């Protein structure tokens, strides 16, 4: 709070939303953005006045609130129609509505912050009478989905939730990465998501982004269905599942304009 009020001392301390949305705080954290969408702003400093560190959570909260301000003045946002190709899509009213919810803004902020440190490791499965080690990474949905065959039933809602998260993160922040999925990867993802056999052929030939949108929403709904207790946080997961494309489009805007670039200090590109 001291950091926020030092940048915008005339904003009341308790008005967190106003502080996070204050242009002075955005400029202090991110520098002056360039005016055209898709261009990278100045380097993220990570510090205010060279003294107080800025956490990833705070930086992403500021960026999410800046996106809400951006969308109030924009009639459309570009949409990727292929590698390095973009077309205007006039869906900003729906994106503004998505960000009108404080809980959904918090959801996107927490999602981004959760991927600044990526968990990976090994787990063990029995196959053909032998115990074998398999690797997983939170940035590899194919390997992460393999955990569903190894964890107890009570842990599956958490795995499904994280699969939804990585689908949204990759489609939103690194939308070119899913193009590396091969036919075998796609088949595994569809199988672990328990997609009905009659729907698999169409999805197998869908664009990588459309595939991740479908799977991510499906995995979020699975987490919601299997969770033993319904919480307010899970209610938001359900909202994002129903509006997955809106969430993805907002993250595309954030990543292109504020988060990525040669000086990106937050995310390592997925392998």
Explain how this protein is built.
This protein is mainly α. Helices cover 53% and strands 11% of the residues. α4 packs across α5 (92-99), α8 packs antiparallel against α11 and α8 crosses α13. The longest helix has 19 residues, at 208-226. The two termini are 37 Å apart. Residues 34-52 have low confidence and may be disordered.
Task: Summarize this entry quickly.
The protein is mainly alpha-helical and 271 residues long. The chain is built from 13 helices and six strands. It has two domains: 113 residues, no CATH class; 139 residues, no CATH class.
The span between the termini is 37 Å
Low-confidence stretches: 34-52
Radius of gyration: 20 Å
- Secondary-structure-derived class: mainly alpha
Which H/E pattern describes the elements?
A: HHHEEHEEHHEEHHHHHHH
> Which sequence of strands runs across the widest sheet?
1-2
Topology:
Elements: H1 2-7, H2 16-20, H3 23-30, E1 47-48, E2 52-53, H4 56-71, E3 77-82, E4 85-89, H5 92-99, H6 102-114, E5 120-127, E6 130-137, H7 141-145, H8 156-173, H9 183-192, H10 197-204, H11 208-226, H12 232-242, H13 244-259
Antiparallel strand pairs: 1-2, 3-4, 5-6
Helix pairs in contact: 3-4, 4-5, 4-6, 8-11, 8-13, 11-12
């Amino acid at each position: 709070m001291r950091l926020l009020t030092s940048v915008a001392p005339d904003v009341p301390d308790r008005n967190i939303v106003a502080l996070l949305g204050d242009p002075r705080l955005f400029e202090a954290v991110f520098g002056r953005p360039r005016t055209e969408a898709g261009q990278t702003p100045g380097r993220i400093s990570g510090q205010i006045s060279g003294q107080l560190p800025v956490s990833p959570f705070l930086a992403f909260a500021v960026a999410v609130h800046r996106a809400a301000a951006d969308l109030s003045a924009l009639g459309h946002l570009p949409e990727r129609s292929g590698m390095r190709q973009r077309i205007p899509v006039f869906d900003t009213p729906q994106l503004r509505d998505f960000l009108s919810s404080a809980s959904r803004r918090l959801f996107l902020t927490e999602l981004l912050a959760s991927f600044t440190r990526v968990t990976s490791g090994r787990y063990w499965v029995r196959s053909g009478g032998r115990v074998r080690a398999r690797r997983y990474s939170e940035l590899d949905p194919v390997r992460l989905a393999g955990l569903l065959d190894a964890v107890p039933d009570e842990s599956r809602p958490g795995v499904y939730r994280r699969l939804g998260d990585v689908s949204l993160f990759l489609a939103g922040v690194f939308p070119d990465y899913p193009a590396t999925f091969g036919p075998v990867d796609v088949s595994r993802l569809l199988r672990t998501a328990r997609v009905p056999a009659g729907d698999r052929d169409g999805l197998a030939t869908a664009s990588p982004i459309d595939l991740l949108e479908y799977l991510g929403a499906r995995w979020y709904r699975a987490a919601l269905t299997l969770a033993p207790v319904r919480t307010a946080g899970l209610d938001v997961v359900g909202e994002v599942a129903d509006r997955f494309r809106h969430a993805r489009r907002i993250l595309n805007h954030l990543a292109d304009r504020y988060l990525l670039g040669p000086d990106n200090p937050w995310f390592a590109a997925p392998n």
